[in-house]
Design brief:
Elements: E1 6-13, E2 23-24, H1 26-37, H2 41-50, E3 53-57, E4 63-65, H3 69-77, E5 82-90, H4 96-106, E6 132-133, H5 135-145, H6 157-166, H7 171-176, H8 178-189
Helix pairs in contact: 1-3, 5-6, 5-8
Length: 206
């Protein structure tokens, strides 16, 4: 049975939001902060009304974010207090263990650390401020914006790309020159080795 998203017009404090992943690309977050600072106060309000954050209600009625982690973290760092949310599912009656198993099986969580290794559910931070930096997630975002692959609705698709690049581009290369790493990743994104990934745009025979 599909879940119907229910917009909540009452603002939810960003500091109360629970993440469903362990990492974020901090370079992505900083880019969002820069774009936010360029908007006027009026456009800020319009932006927030047009970017409802999808959440699942978990145990004790807490709001668990299943998308827009980077946006929420950027807004929190910019001292924005509230966001509007859209409730994808109400699972508040489940126990904590059953709740996380359900999220995992629906693809609504990403319990992998900054090295790409799967971790226990308990390693997912309780606040957005507790997210760790994964530079490869930032690389994946940059490659998508450069047309290396298409935006896809599959949950956490950028993390799949991040893992693909993690296995092919050394961390030292990424740390030394991000732009060079993006250029290398653009070439890798078009290879047939990446054909299994969401949004792949490579040509046949590449």
């Amino acid at each position: 049975m599909p879940y119907v998203r229910e917009p909540r017009l009452k603002p939810v404090p960003i500091e109360s939001l629970r993440p469903t992943q362990i990492t974020a690309g901090f370079r992505e977050v900083e880019a969002m902060r820069a774009r936010w600072r360029k908007r006027s106060a009026r456009k800020d309000k319009e932006f927030l009304r047009g970017h409802l954050v999808p959440v699942v209600l978990g145990p004790k009625g807490r709001h668990y974010v299943i998308d827009h982690h980077h946006l929420c973290l950027a807004l929190e760092r910019e001292k924005q207090k509230f966001v509007l949310v859209t409730v994808v599912a109400d699972l508040s009656r489940l126990t904590r263990d059953a709740f996380f198993v359900f999220l995992d099986n629906r693809g609504w969580m990403h319990p992998f650390d900054e090295t790409g290794k799967r971790r226990a559910y308990s390693d997912i931070p309780k606040t957005l401020a507790g997210l760790k930096d994964d530079p490869y997630r930032s690389l994946a975002g940059a490659v998508r914006r450069e047309g290396g692959y298409a935006k896809d609705t599959e949950p956490f698709s950028e993390f799949l790309w991040a893992d693909y690049f993690r296995r092919r581009i050394k961390a030292a290369v990424l740390q030394k020159d991000f732009d060079d790493a993006v250029r290398a990743a653009l070439g890798l994104a078009r290879k047939n080795d990446a054909a299994y990934l969401p949004g792949w745009c490579g040509a046949s025979g590449s």
